[in-house]
Specification:
By secondary structure, this protein is α/β, with parallel strands linked by helices. The protein contains 14 helices and 15 strands. It is globular and about 60 Å long.
Length: 444
């Protein structure tokens, strides 16, 4: 019996040692699990209606249609402001403009003299904006957060905050030197329009170094100048109401083509299953039929034509594709959602949520927006509108100082997605309740 007991003890000890070794090995494998590449694809000046998968009758976007079909696609996405510089700053930081303080495109002080509405061309523009850049460099950005996980980050396309390094990127196309024309992207604006080779080189570098990468692809597309390839323009001349509209529609397809090129390149490298794609547009655009300008209901406006955008998250095999036409999401959600997927703790300063978390999404009551003057100084001086979006209402509150002749507007954005009928006078209790939500948001 003693020998049997001793033999049993030895067997149990061997099993225990083997099991412990296996547990340690599993734990080690979890900590060294391959991290996904992350690709942010950002459209520039495109209305939420102007995609094939969003129902446009003429614009062809087959590559983005395919991305939408393979993604958790939120068709009721929003950016917090309808102007590129503050919108992009919110995407990379995950906070509202009032927090990152990039309120507009150009900073104008009270004693500055602006000639011909061209603040961007004034000799003092870069000096004024240096204050904005210094403040921005103190903030957390997604590339900075990802450094601790070993990511290489690179910037291409639109970038307003000086040199790419100011956002925490390791590599980039934008030098930001005002003496060489640096303002909103400089060499970065060539990506897409003049090919994709620089971005491909960055991807190759990361793969060579065996590093996960974060790519910021924010091409100057379909942004004006609307000068699409002639082959694309010919497709739309017959169906568009004017040459101006035909050019804009063709630009949307040109942008879509570049997105397809990028996704195909990553697929050719065998990285599709290990890449998280996130899509958003920085702000909307409605093309005038009779000139090259945009309609004032879109860019820089508080309406959905300026603010609404589809937002997509694709990670093959990890995120189940689903087309969500009801939930309200924001570009502020992009950073916290990415961090959640990577298992990185969310910084307290972030204003968004993890939209892939069912509880967080279902418990969300509202998302907010704010719009400032294109040429800005302080929040108080430059604020034009505050907005709140709920299910089903959207409230627009003009700042009486900057918009003294405008009234509060209320829309049912689910029944009236083009915001044709203001119902503020019919629903005073809703207006009061939503004003309170805005006030509470700003107190935070």
């Amino acid at each position: 019996m003693k020998n049997a007991t001793l033999l049993t003890s030895i067997i149990l000890a061997i099993i225990c040692l083997t099991s412990c070794k296996e547990v340690k090995q599993v734990s080690k494998e979890k900590t060294t699990e391959k991290l996904p590449n992350i690709v942010f694809i950002l459209s520039d000046d495109q209305a939420w209606t102007d995609y094939g998968f969003m129902g446009h009758k003429f614009i062809k976007t087959p590559n983005l249609d395919k991305l939408a079909a393979e993604s958790r696609t939120f068709t009721r996405g929003y950016v917090p402001t309808s102007l590129c510089s503050p919108s992009l700053a919110s995407i990379i930081t995950g906070v509202y403009p009032r927090d990152h303080m990039v309120l507009g495109n150009d900073r104008v002080l009270p004693d500055n003299v602006v000639e011909n509405n061209r603040a961007w061309d004034m000799p003092w523009r870069s000096e004024n904006y240096e204050h904005v850049i210094r403040n921005f460099k103190k903030l957390e950005t997604l590339p900075k957060i990802l450094k601790d996980k070993g990511y290489l980050s690179f910037q291409t396309g639109k970038w307003w905050i000086g040199n790419y390094a100011n956002g925490g990127f390791d590599y980039g196309m934008t030098h930001g030197d005002p003496n060489r024309g640096g303002r909103h992207g400089d060499y970065g604006l060539e990506i897409g329009r003049k090919g994709m080779d620089t971005l491909y080189s960055y991807i190759d570098l990361a793969l060579e170094k065996k590093k996960p990468f974060f790519a910021w692809y924010a091409p100057f597309l379909p942004h004006s100048p609307h000068n699409p390839p002639e082959s694309l323009l010919q497709k739309y001349r017959k169906s568009a109401p004017s040459e101006y509209v035909a050019k804009y529609w063709a630009m949307c397809e040109w942008f879509d083509n570049t997105c397809g090129d990028l996704m195909n390149y990553i697929d050719e490298k065998g990285e599709t299953e290990n890449t998280l794609f996130v899509y958003v547009c920085d702000n909307g655009w409605v093309q005038n039929e009779n000139d090259a300008n945009y309609n004032p209901i879109s860019k820089q406006a508080p309406y959905d034509y300026g603010l609404r955008t589809p937002i997509m998250f694709k990670w093959k095999g990890k995120i189940m594709p689903f087309h969500d036409d009801r939930s309200l999401v924001s570009s502020l959600d992009m950073v916290p959602t990415v961090l959640a997927l990577l298992g990185i703790e969310r910084p307290n300063a972030l204003d968004g949520i993890n939209v892939l978390d069912k509880n967080e999404l279902e418990n969300r009551e509202a998302i907010f927006g704010e719009i400032y003057n294109h040429d800005f100084n302080t929040v108080e001086e430059s604020l034009k509108y505050k907005m709140v979006m709920t299910d089903p209402y959207k409230l627009i509150v003009p700042n009486s100082k900057n918009r003294p002749n405008e009234q509060v507007q209320l829309f049912n954005i689910y029944e009236d997605p083009l915001e044709q009928t203001d119902i503020a006078n019919k629903k005073p209790s809703v207006v009061k309740a939503l004003k309170k939500k805005i006030e509470e948001s700003w107190k935070k």
